[in-house]
Amino acid sequence: MSAPADHHKDHAHPHDPAPAPAPAQAQAAVRTGCCAPANTCCEPVATAPGQGPLLSLSEPSATDDCCAPDSGASACCDHSPATTLYGIAEPVATKGTAEACCGGHQHAAPAAGTTLAGAEHVAGGMRTPIRIMQMDCPTEEGLLRKKLGGMTTVSQLDFNLMQRVLTVTHAPEALPAVLDAVRALGFTPEVADSNTAHAAPVEEPTKPWWPLALAGAAAIGSEVAHWLSAPEWLSATLAILAVLACGITTYKKGWIAVRNGNLNINALMSIAVTGALLIGQWPEAAMVMVLFTIAELIEARSLDRARNAIRGLMDLAPEQATVQQPDGSWREQPARDVLPDARVRVRPGERIALDGAVLSGNSTVNQAPITGESLPVEKAAGDVVFAGAINEAGSFEYRVTARATDSTLARIIHAIEAAQGARAPTQRFVDRFARIYTPIVFLFALGIAVLPPLLFGGAWFDWIYKALVLLVIACPCALVISTPVTIVSGLAAAARQGILIKGGVYLEQGRKLAWIALDKTGTLTHGKPVQTDFATLADVPEQRVRSLAASLASRSDHPVSRAVAQAAQRDGIAVLDVEAFEALPGRGTQGLVNDQRYRLGNHRLAHELGLCSEALEAHLSALEAQGKTVILLSDETQVLGLFAVADTLKDSSRTAVEELHVLGVKTAMLTGDNDATARAIATQAGIDEARGELLPEDKLAFIESRLAAGHAVGMVGDGINDAPALARADVGFAMGAAGTGTAIETADVALMDDDLRKLPRFVRLSRRTHTVLLQNIVFALGIKAVFLVLTLAGLGTMWMAVFADVGASLLVVANGLRLLRSPRD
Q1: Whole-angstrom distance, CA of residue 175 vs CA of residue 189
Q2: HSE-CB of 327 using CA atoms within 13 angstroms
Q3: What's the Cα-to-Cα distance from 740 to each of 6, 23, 355, 366, 391, rounded to whole Å?
Q4: At a CB cut-off of 8 Å and minimum separation 6, what does 26 contact?
Q5: What percent of the chain has a predicted confidence (pLDDT) above 70?
Q6: Residue range 455-476: average pLDDT?
Q7: Which pLDDT tens digit goes with each residue over 578-600?
Q8: SS3 call for 500
Q9: CA separation for the pair 429, 480 (Å, rounded)
Q10: Which among 17, 309, 315 has a CA at the least distance from the CA of 163?
Q11: Judging by beta carbons within 10 Å of its beta carbon (0-12, 13-18, 19+), is residue 538 exposed, middle or buried?
């Protein structure tokens, strides 16, 4: 079979995110703070169309010298060639500063290597990723969604809170207005800048600790003054000092939110603290603001841990490589500058810096970070090595096959980052719920403050205080942040095991799988059959029959054809010139040799040509009953010879099927091979159902029949014949995707090596992820419900409400991170 092929979805899952259009032929990345006559220095650069909408590839433009660095104008266009090898971006880092948010907590810079892609042309105009360092929780997302969603020039907003990236689809001329709108909210937008294409984002200076310490001391002083019955002015003065020392940022953010009609945590906290001050609750107002600031700092650190869940992958590939120079000497140089075909040397114990093929030397390499294999792999001349793998013993030299930005490791990282932006079904539900939850709670709190005093003669201060407590616990931060943290942890845990999942939708879908269909050759079996039998069936010399068969077989990459060609090569059989060669999907091949047509194909093809006799059928049945695959060489009138090849079942296939059955997942084998061979292999593997002699449309029909019966179905394959079935299945698995850009980009789930035991691991991880998601939702809503009851009973206080809100956030983040510590099996 051929390498994995593109299998763009020919169906639409209701939970699938809308696909991004493919990049156009030219693109422009826009950066801020450049020259006034922006458009005068911009020349579009032609780009090669990408294979998929993961990200666009941008490299520094050689013509980016049109703007004076000190011009001080608002914007300038910078065009960058987008060569989109494998459809994956060479990310472009940007520089910028970031302020505190969420009540004053600080943001760490993104993990090293997390860089920003350039803008790209799409059907709706331009699609521009914007990093906003202050955007890391639903508070900021709500503000941005309301502000930008009302702009007629903006058609789509895609938020990735974990990477702090907002991708805006907008009219080509609208980017300056979009950036101005972001700045109006107090945020600092960053877009791709070719001048800093290889630089990491600038980390903001650490904020001084003394204002928070001063605020804490003043709040405690206010509380002590109140206990000691000191003059009220002293308690009030200390409380106001505490609020001013640590709460200015919260008030600024809160005012921006209220001005834009958004009730986020900053707005609710500002209202609550102000209300407490107005009713004379001086110590409590001060303590609430201080506790809120401290708790937000702790929450920010917890979120940074989740955000950096894939940082370990980014740090795998070393920054330096030992490269042979034109004069034959060896010198270390940055891996990002090494071009394909360069010769690189790796010493024992070193990490491999770039993808390549071994030229000389032998070693054992631990490539678990890429493929998830538990044991080191022997490498010799001709073998493939991956960036990030560890050379355990021996030294070797290899030829670089891809730049650092196009390596298998880079594609894995970018695929995971892109997957984080695709909301899973549970996350979309939570987002919709949160949008109506906060206004309802706010109105409820308003009713609590007003209705009991007006209707039932309640004490105004008591009921206003209860309403303020409700405002503090109204923010749905814990609920909304719980889902992306859990999904990212699940994606990162899968990647560490060599399972690349292309989005939360597939991670969640895995738990529902009732059937998994598998291709045979190269999936269940080793895919390296050898020729075991040969017989001539006509009055044609044996040498001639083998030569004709080898000539056709050598033009095909199917494992069965390769077995015939390799046997001929081993025995010194000559290969003839073939004209008008043609592959017959699901049947075999045909071509002209000396102007006469010959066909090399399976039992089905012989039937269709009407060339089967009773004697031939008996011969074929005897071989197929032994689990052998038989192909026939024929001309226009008769079968000239038959070739039998045998493949062997992988040990891991047998184990994988057993584990799937334990999980309640049924298995089916779909193959173009004959029924007898299919049954023989299926029996060895313990598979529930086997179907042989299937064309691509037959495999598709099987998948559709199971879907029609209401079952969730997965399909595992590694070739073009599997593409329709892979596309139609709920989850399509590509086998052996390491080093194969197409498989990584197009499969729903890519198994980085050929070990089928990753299938039950995927199902188990999916089920664990779903359990954690449900736990987090129950935790977040349950804690708020408890404090709602306590507040109405008069037992809840404002500082307790602060701990309840942020405590719930910490709890769901910690629970989501448990997936990173999940066992491998």
Answers
A1: 11
A2: 3
A3: 11, 21, 11, 19, 21
A4: 44, 45, 46, 47, 79, 121
A5: 77
A6: 82
A7: 999 998 887 899 999 999 999 99
A8: strand
A9: 10
A10: 309
A11: middle
Q: Which residues contact 581 (CB under 8 A, 6 or more apart)?
A: 552, 555, 589, 590, 591
Q: What digits encode the pLDDT tens for the residues 294-322?
A: 867 776 776 666 666 555 666 677 889 99
Residue 343 has φ and ψ, to the nearest 5°, of: -100, 125
Specify the pLDDT at position 92: 32
Q: Please, which residues have CB within 8 angstroms of residue 213's CB and are 6 or more apart in sequence? A: none
Q: How far is CA 1 from its chain centroid?
A: 27
* Short-list 177, 172, 176, 146, CA closest to 159: 146
Q: Which tokens belong to 744? A: 């990584």
CB 374 within 8 A of CB 316: no
In sequence order, the β-bridge partners of residue 630 are 644
247: CB partners within 8 A, 6+ apart: 103, 104, 215, 270, 273, 289, 293
Q: What's the pTM value of the predicted model, to 2 decimals? A: 0.62
Distances (CA, A) of 201 to 106, 295, 318, 770: 15, 26, 19, 34
CA 392: distance to chain centroid?
29
- The residues annotated with a catalytic role in the active site are 519
Give me the pLDDT at residue 633, please: 94
List beta partners, residue 351. 390
Contact 601, 584 (CB under 8 A): yes
The mean pLDDT of 626-653, rounded to a whole number, is 88
Q: For residues 600 and 248, what is the distance between their CA atoms, to the nearest angstrom?
A: 79
Report d(CA 212, CA 814) in Å as an integer: 25
Would you tell me how many other CB atoms lie within 10 Å of the CB of residue 665?
Answer: 20
H/E stretch holding 492 reads helix 477-496
Q: 438-459 pLDDT, tens per residue? A: 788 888 888 988 999 988 888 8
In the predicted model, is pLDDT for residue 31 greater than 90? no
708: Cβ contacts below 8 Å, ≥ 6 apart: none
Q: Are 491 and 408 in contact (CB under 8 A)?
A: no
| Identity at 349, one-letter amino acid code | G
Q: Which residue has the higher pLDDT, 341 or 50?
A: 341
Q: What is the DSSP letter of 174?
A: -
Query: Among all chains, which residue has been given the structure tokens 């909210």?
Result: 185
Least confident segment among 44-53, 176-185, 471-480, 572-581: 44-53
Residue 642's pLDDT band, with cuts at 50, 70 and 90, is very high
Cα–Cα distance measured from residue 306 to residue 200, given in angstroms and rounded to the nearest whole number:
19
Q: Where are the beta strands (DSSP E) in 266-389?
A: 320-324, 330-334, 343-346, 356-361, 363-366, 377-379, 384-385
Number of CB atoms found within 10 A of residue 65's CB: 8
Strand, helix or coil for residue 781: helix
The residue to which tokens 């703007």 are assigned:
67
